[in-house]
Write a structure and sequence with these properties.
The structure is a homodimer. Chain A is of the alpha/beta class. The first copy, chain A, is 43% helix and 19% strand. The first copy, chain A, has 2 domains: 164 residues, Rossmann fold (3-Layer(aba) Sandwich), CATH 3.40.50; 162 residues, Dehydroquinate synthase-like - alpha domain (Dehydroquinate synthase-like, alpha domain, Up-down Bundle). A 7-stranded mixed beta sheet of chain A has the order 1-2-9-6-5-3-4, sandwiched between helices. In chain A, strand 3, helix 2 and strand 4 form a beta-alpha-beta unit. The longest helix of chain A is centred in the middle third of the chain and has 18 residues. The first copy, chain A, is globular and about 60 Å long. Chains A and B meet through helix 3, strand 7 and strand 8 of A and helix 3, strand 7 and strand 8 of B. Chains A, B: Its main location: cytoplasm. Chains A, B: This is 3-dehydroquinate synthase.
């Protein structure tokens, strides 16, 4: 199926379908020079599938992992673009997870002041979350996404088949962002997590439909789009403090959400979904340590933080909490 | 006077007035944290005038010259932004010429995916040209403006008083871009160059009025905006080949325009304006050398170049010329 993200002159289609990668050349002009950007972990089979449809293409690979979202890698890719004589009419196709989309998207946003950018997310996390919305960026030191742009892709292809080569833990990690979307906006999406079998295509589709709706109303994150940060304030802090050794992004967001689900019945439902997804339990944490990361978050205003809460399934409130209030919540614990 | 550049949600005012810098704090919120970015050549008096209106500001200086439009300087400024805890609500004010506007504008465009950017151009060239239009960029090796963005400022202040500290050659250099604008769009602007005294404020105002009109119709340079490249194809090649030692940007553009003014009477008028502005004459050049730079220009499509010609004062045509045709024109010479 095809969904259109409606952002006036920046509108673009998202194709969600098994094998949709096979018909890329029917949907866009692949006769231009095209840079395929992917990390070293992407199986050749996906690269070749795309390349076979782009006669004038070349492949730029970079090391897997968040540490590639840095100035040096950004500069290296831009120099490769120059070396390959890319013009303003040419295009970039990113094939990979969130890191690849963020990095390749920022290269596309700034090379010659912006060339066409296409995205093929290959992790569930990127499919349901980062590939929609046009946020591209690199990190500087410990500051995630501190340098970047709002730059919409010209098309996104989501092929559930590419998930087959993904370990189950990675799939569950991505499902957390879909569950998050359901919790704040769509009870029926949460229900899908309680069906006998998890229908990934349906979960992806509903999840994108909601994210698309939010982005359409607030492209530059001045208001509504903040609800997508549900679970992320404490989640990011856990990720910064303990994530590198032990946890994935989605797993940390799952932990972060628990603190702000207000309905005890809903919290129980969510905990059994977490069990089903084999998510790791919230570890013993040091409140002071987490607070130091929360204060450090560059998106935090000077004296308080916007926190998204879920009073009932499918609804949200946004509250401005002081650091003291957040510290109190952390001390009480997520199951209080 | 105040002119509004009308780009819907990205509209912004340009203030053109002696001493308009004195009332900055009436026009924008200067209570935020503000980074003032300037090169080491800007007299302290202008910095202080602005700073005195911004209680929570700090100054970032960088070395004068085009070579500061590089990755390293871009990265350094971004790290300074982080070090000063700049948030998405804070702002950058650039004070300087084209290099400063391009560099500081690109920092503003990408720090936290874009924060408010204000520009105070202090050279005539920046006042009549680069400060209007939202093109920001850095260079990579010999490729000028190859990495950047279209990012509109939130306001521009043009104070003709700041030109008093500028050497006359710099003023004349800037006047070339104003003359260019007149040649392609406005006979009365060309007339101003033949008045007994050159009225800078009037020339700046008319010139910006036209540039504003062109930018409003073609923000992202997909069509009409190309006419502003009049004189620049050969001009850039002369600048690359001989500029560093001897010529300024506007001087090279003046040379480049001569090749494509088709009316011989108009060419005579223009040559006497050049005399009045004490512009250097076109040097003996090596056609093959200039051609190698023209072929190299990243904006050139693969086999031809869009060239702007002026058949009569205030009018233009755009033609797609092959490299052979341009070589032929260079061999015939500018006065043919």
């Amino acid at each position: 199926m095809k969904m259109i993200v409606d952002l006036q002159e920046y509108s673009y289609p998202i194709w969600i379908e098994a094998n949709c990668l096979d018909s890329l050349s029917n949907q866009i002009d692949t006769s231009r020079r095209i840079a395929l950007i992917a990390d070293e972990g992407i199986p050749d089979i996906w690269i070749q599938k795309v390349r076979s449809q782009c006669p004038d293409s070349f492949v730029l690979r970079f090391a897997q992992g968040e540490s590639s979202k840095c100035f040096l890698q950004y500069e290296t890719l831009l120099k490769e673009m120059i070396r390959h004589d890319m013009t303003r009419k040419d295009a970039i196709i990113a094939i990979g997870g969130g890191v690849t989309g963020d990095l390749a998207g920022f290269v596309a946003a700034t090379y010659m002041r912006g060339i066409d950018f296409y995205n093929i997310p290959t992790t569930l996390l990127a499919q349901v979350d980062s590939s929609v919305g046009g946020k591209v960026a690199i990190d500087v030191d410990e500051y995630k996404n501190i340098v970047g742009a709002f730059y919409q892709p010209k098309a996104v292809w989501i092929d559930p088949n590419v998930l087959q080569t993904l370990p189950p833990r990675q799939v569950h990690n991505g499902l957390v962002e879909a569950l998050k979307t359901g919790l704040i906006q769509d009870p029926s999406l949460v229900d899908l997590f309680e069906e006998e079998t998890l229908d990934l295509t349906q979960i992806i589709t509903r999840s994108i439909a909601i994210k698309k709706h939010v982005v359409e109303q607030d492209e530059k994150e001045n208001g509504l789009r903040k609800i997508l940060n549900f679970g992320h304030t404490i989640g990011h802090a856990i990720e910064s403090a303990y994530g590198l050794q032990s946890y994935l992004h989605g797993e940390c967001v799952a932990m972060g959400m628990l603190f702000f689900i207000e309905d005890p019945e809903l919290k129980k439902r969510v905990l059994s979904i977490y069990d089903r997804l084999q998510l790791p339990p919230l570890p013993a944490y040091d409140t002071k340590e987490l607070m130091s990361y929360i204060r450090h978050d560059k998106k935090a205003k000077h004296q308080s933080v916007s926190i998204v809460k879920v009073p009932r399934v499918g609804t949200f409130t946004i509250e401005e909490l002081s650091y003291e209030q957040i510290e109190f919540i952390l001390e009480k614990g997520a199951l209080a």
